[in-house]
Design brief:
With 160 residues, the protein is α+β, with helices and mostly antiparallel strands. The protein is built from 5 helices and 5 strands. A 5-stranded mixed β-sheet has the order 2-1-5-3-4, sandwiched between helices. The longest helix has 14 residues.
């Protein structure tokens, strides 16, 4: 089965065998390794990407459902010159990056949240991250980074 969709703004067509998932296409076919394999059952969030504006676990997202969709990965957030976007930069500035394995998925979950709710409170941020596990940070710095990005995007606060 051939599916056509966009990845990070680029049209893509991939021949997918039955039972293939989005994570396999991203990593093995397209060479986009930012989404990480973790649990492979959709419970850790390391593979989170955005599909049509919604955070999705790519390890359980069937490739057969990709037709006509727009997929955004962590690689697609960076500016054309390769510099981090504001949320990625906030993670660095707020010390929200420890080992880094879970961070691409968490950033994508945060980006999806900000796309739907540009001014989330700390409880809403924590709820949006409920499907993303991090063993290193304790989430405080992660929530701080997302909250600061929301304030910056709203024009309430300047970049750090």
């Amino acid at each position: 089965m051939n599916v056509s969709f966009t990845v990070n703004g680029r049209p893509t067509a991939v021949d997918v065998p039955p039972k293939m998932v989005l994570l396999d296409i991203l990593r093995d076919v397209l060479g986009l390794t930012g989404a990480k394999p973790g649990c492979e059952i959709g419970s850790c969030g390391a593979c989170t990407v955005i599909v049509d504006g919604e955070a999705q676990n790519s390890c359980t997202f069937p490739a057969s459902r990709l037709e006509g969709t727009a997929v955004l990965t962590i690689e697609g957030l960076a500016a054309p010159d390769g510099t981090p976007n504001d949320l990625q930069q906030a993670f660095v500035e707020h010390g929200a990056v420890q080992c880094g394995y879970c961070i691409p998925g968490i950033i994508m979950a945060g980006e999806a949240l900000l796309g739907h709710n540009p001014t989330p409170n700390r409880t809403e941020i924590r709820e949006a991250l409920a499907g993303n596990l991090c063993r290193c940070t304790g989430y405080v710095q992660i929530v701080d980074a997302i909250e600061a990005t929301a304030r910056q995007r709203a024009g309430v606060e300047e970049a750090v």
